Amino acid sequence: MSGIKEKVSYIQGLADGLNITDEATAKVLKAIIKTLEDMADIIEEHDECIDELDDCIEDICDELDDIDEYLFDDEDEDEDDECDFFEAECPHCGEMIYFDNQLSEKMEELICPNCNESIIEDIEEDEE
Ligand SMILES: [Zn+2]
After folding, report:
1. Ligand 1 mean position to 120 CA, how many Å?
2. Is residue 84 classed as helix, strand or coil in its secondary structure?
């Protein structure tokens, strides 16, 4: 991970090789190394926690992306599509009628409001 424990062990080895005769100096050095070891332990623990949190945040972001896609996908399509209605001329009375594209899945149900005739069926008949 951070490799800080290995560095502390290396310093410990160097200190062991010094053969310090002064007791006070040896005591201070030992205390410093002990503190470094404690810090290395804490840093390693924190690194593990941060990794776990990273994974959690990544999962949450993925879920949010999915939710965002689910909630706003249709809206985005509408924004991209400037023409969200279509127009048709009634073959019976010649009236120009505008329909919302969202209704297009129910095209067979489209009725001219002017003469109450079905528009789509007649257009298809005209094309044949
Ligand atoms: Zn009509």
Report:
1. 11
2. coil
